[in-house]
Each structure stands twice: as C-alpha cells, then as structure tokens.
From TrEMBL:
Origin species: Bradyrhizobium canariense
Keywords for this protein: Oxidoreductase
InterPro entries assigned: Nitroreductase, Nitroreductase-like
Signal sequence interval, chain numbering: none
Nitroreductase domain residues: 8-197
Keyword Cytoplasm: no
Gene3D superfamilies: NADH Oxidase (3.40.109.10)
Pfam families per UniProt: Nitroreductase (PF00881)
UniProt name for this protein: Nitroreductase
Superkingdom classification of source: Bacteria
Record carries keyword Metal-binding: no
PANTHER family referenced in this protein's UniProt entry, alphabetically: NAD(P)H NITROREDUCTASE YDGI-RELATED, NADH DEHYDROGENASE_NAD(P)H NITROREDUCTASE XCC3605-RELATED
Family recorded in the similarity comment: Belongs to the nitroreductase family.
Amino acid sequence: MEFETLVQSRRSVRGFRNEPVPRAVIEAIIDTAKRAPSSMNTQPWHVHVLTGSPLEQLRRRNMEEMVAGAKVKRDIVSHGEYQGVHRTRQVDVAKKLFGAMGIARDDKPMRQDWVLRGFRQFDAPVSLVLTYDRVLDPGAVCHFDLGALCYGIVLAAWDRGLGSVINGQGIMRSDIVREVANIPEEEVIMTCVAMGYPDDNFAANAVRSDREGNDDFVRYVGFAE
C-alpha cells in the first residue's frame, strides 16, 4: 500500500475480533517499525508484547484498581486534565464515538462501560507495551524516538490488516504492568498499543477524528508568494 493511502485510510480501532494474532506477524510489524527515525541512532526503545493469560491478568487488575478508585500511577509525568482547545477536540471525538455506539449523554452505565473498555485495552488480543531506557531521562528526545516507533508499529500493523489503538488507559497502573510483564526498573513505561483484527461490525471502528486545516497550525517562512 502506498504511504499516503496507508496514512489516510488508517483509523483507531476500538473493537476487535476474538482472533489470535500470530507471533510471526507481530515480529514482521516490529521489524518494519524499528526503522523509525532515532536521534543519533540511539534506539532507546523496548517493546514487551503480551497476549493470553498475562494480558488477561493485566487488564483485569488494571480495571479493578481503577474502578476501586486507586490513584493513577504512571511512570511518565501526566499533563492532567485538558483545557481550552485541547479539551474541545477531546470532547468532539467523544461525541462522535458515543453517537456511533448509541450511548446517550445521560446513560451513565454505558459511559462507564466505555471507560472500562479503555482500562481493558478494548479487549484486544495483543498489547505492545512500549518503554525506553530510564538513563536517558530527563529529556524529550527519547520520548520523540519512542513516538516515532509507535507510529511505525501502527502503520505497519494496518498494512497487514491489523487495527490498533494507542492506549494510555491500559497502563494507568504502571506498577501492575511492570509486575505482570516483568519489565525491569531500568525501563520507563510510556504507553501501550492494543492490537488485533478489526471487528467490522463494531460501530465505533468507523469513527474518524477530525483534523484542523493546515492554515490553523502551519506557517511557511521564506517561500515565494
């Protein structure tokens, strides 16, 4: 698939078929994605791929802790609640998703169930936990590198018929993730990617978030008029 077509067609998938993903397919995805740009070729990333009973344990414990009111315990610093235009964009896509799923504004049980799906990593059959070497903190360069790898994984997966969603809710309790996946303390847990074959009958999978027009965020300097 041509790159432009690949990027334009890709969307976040929030409903997956109950079908295992072969390890060989995941290995091929990572083999492609690892060619992502890396500052001075430092390659600060690590990928921990979970499926089966370890993933079930992770999602169950993560969900139970959050439902019980446990505090978020992530390795990385959170920005807190979004405000202003960032909050507006967050709400806009939520309205689209709830509309597609038929979840009314006052339907608290269904809204809560949607939140729990995020904590369960949307019941995807595979989760890729992305980490970087702690020795490189503080600094944004390694975060940038890991983001490039993450997007490479998402695109390479889509090219092979797999959907994914970059899912911070799935690692709200990084201590649980570290324990279940046996991730060493020398690595910082940044995010995870829930992955699997898309369920075409899941209405939210058809939702695409809006993007601002280029004039709203792009400046051209030194170009002839």
